Structure formats: structure tokens, C-alpha cells
Amino acid sequence: MTQGPGNLQTIESHILELQSLHPGASGDFTGLLNDITLAARIIGREVTKAGLVDILGATGEKNVQGEVVQKLDDYANGVFMNCLGRRGQVCILGSEEMADPVYVPVSQGSGRYVVIFDPLDGSSNIDANVSVGTIFGIWKRRSERTHVGEQDLLQPGRDLVAAGYIVYGSSTMFVYSAGHGVHGFTLDPGIGEFLLSHEDIKTPFNGHVYSVNEGYAGHWPPEVRQVVETLKTGRPGRDGGMSGRYIGSLVADFHRNLLYGGTYLYPPTGSMPRGKLRLTCEAAPLAFIAEQAGGYASDGQGPILDITPTDLHMRVPLYIGSREDVLWIEKCLSESCGKL
Q1: Which residue ranges form the domains of the chain, and what is each CATH number?
Q2: 90 phi, psi to nearest 5 deg
Q3: How many Å apart are CA 43 and CA 168, to the nearest integer?
Q4: 24: how many CB neighbours lie within 10 A of its CB?
């Protein structure tokens, strides 16, 4: 007798169960997450057939960061803008691809959430068929009336009500947290549903992998070079050094390290002394996920989640992954690694 599958819980039913954990929660939050999963399904479909249609390669334009916009990146941004807030849940939408946030007209009692996202992280890898991803963060509106502004847009990661990412690779996987652990869902293309595949993800306390673009080593501050060299050769009290694994797609590198243990580093450089990654649409949402899974994220001085952004596109250094490893890096950056 053939045994049936043990768990066929869809992401929609999981979100509905989650709503019961939040007394007074409305259907707005549930609907918003469902809209994000719809956008993920649409983008995932296009990624899998990207080589068959004219959406690979660059548009010839540059985004607000001065980076060349990839065609699929531009498409993904449009999908998110069209899918989110259709039912009046969102008051502000912010995207890594747009210079300014979009303030959605709201009436009293509507538009409870702020959503900031990177529609397609790792877009420079699209033509090489490397895994890419989406990152999103959801904050609750602070203002009580219809007027919304910077006090709603510029909130620290500690105030996130939910965050997540989607990996578009050999399979499409949706990973999110709403403050009750981290849960992963894999898209079954046959039925078009995200099914629970990784329940209550816990990242290892320490890992054996570090992920960093060592091509920038000559531009790092001396203390960062010392940190990476010590990771390679071996920390005191650790058996051997760590292995280098770097895909060059933030979501893919973070996802691997979240599951298996490890640390991702994007330090400052001489040309970018404040770092390159964006706080609101990349660092803060992933930091929320990391901490919910037992990990940690730092800018080298303290928790990423405690940083209040000064603008939508504020950049920060990022050290994220297994808790023990990142805490060691944070301490090593302020002291000599040899003393630890």
C-alpha cells in the first residue's frame, strides 16, 4: 500500500493559522501575505522560462543605486507594485528599484502596513542562470489617521511585523517569519501551490562556511581583512578554518547559510565606507529572519535590527548568519582578533 504525503499544508492555510496567534488581527495582514505569494508565483514562472522569452539581459537603464537594470528585475518590480496593496492594506510601498516611495491613498482604518522590498536580488546573475531572489519587509503604520509620512516609512527592523524572501532556483521557495519562527514553503509547479517543506527553521549556532566577495579584499579596512584571514586559517578554540562559499546572490548565500550554518559578510570598502546593501529592503528583513531562526545580524558595531534608517536607500555593512560566529566577528572588529 502506498503511503500518502505526510504534510500538504499550503502557505495560505499556514498564514490563516498564524492570524489566530495575533488577537485582534484583521484579514488585511493575511491578504497582504497572500498577495506577496501571488507575486512570487508570477515571478517564479517567468524566471523558469526566462531563456525562452525576451526578458534576459539589461534594459540599458540604471536604477536609483546607479546599477544597470536587468529586464527581469524591472519586470519583477512591476509585478510587486501591481500585486501589493490591491485591497487597501498598504499605505506605503518602497522598492530598491525606485528612487522614491509610493504613498498609496488611504482612508481612515485602511492602509495599515508599509511594505519595502527588493524585487529581484542578484539580478546581475540572471543571464548565467544563477539563483536569484526577492526580499521583503512589512511594518505596521505608526500614524493613526489618514496622513502618512516618514515616521511610517523609516522604521527600524526591530519594528517589523513580518519579513521574508523568495529563492528562484532549481525550485521556488518562500521563506517567511511573522515573529513566530521561520517557515519555508516550496512551490509545487504541478498544482501551483507553496507547500510547507521546512517547518520552524533553526540555524546552527555556529557554522563552517563564510561567504564574502574576496575580490574586494584590497579595499577593506585592515580589521576586516584580519577577520576574514582568521576565519580562513582558524579561530582560537575552533578545529580548523572555515570554507569559503560565495554565490554572489545575497538571497542564495543567505538561504544556504541559514539552513546549514555559516556567515555572510558584506563589509565596507574604501569607495563605500557605509557599506553597499540597503538597510530597509535587504539587511533589516534578513536580519529579522536570522534572529527568528536563532542567528544574528550586525553592522559590525551592533544589531542591524536596532538601526533606524535615515532614508529609504540608506546603506549599511552586513555580517549575518550563525549567532556565535557573527558575535565573534563583531567583537573582533572592535578588538584585535588575536586577543580573542
Answers
A1: 11-198 (3.30.540.10), 209-335 (3.40.190.80)
A2: -110, 140
A3: 8
A4: 4
SS3 264: strand
Q: Which of 52, 101, 55 is nearest to 74 (CA)?
A: 55
State how far the Cα of 329 lies from the Cα of 325, in Å rounded to an integer.
6
The Cα 28–Cα 14 span in angstroms is 15
pLDDT digits (tens, 9 = 90+) for 196-217: 999 999 999 999 999 999 999 9
Q: What is the pLDDT of residue 1?
A: 33
SS3 of 100, please?
A: coil
Cα 90 from Cα 282, distance rounded (Å): 19
What distance in Å separates the CA atoms of residue 331 and residue 139, rounded to the nearest whole number?
A: 30
**Pairing status of strand 102-103 against strand 243-244:** unpaired
Span 244-276, pLDDT tens digits: 999 989 999 999 999 999 999 999 999 999 999
Selection from 123, 132, 209 nearest residue 173 by Cα: 132
C-alpha cell at 297: 545580524
In tens, the pLDDT along 10-28 reads 888 888 877 666 655 567 8
Strand partners, 166: 134, 174
Residue 80 pLDDT: 93
DSSP 208: S
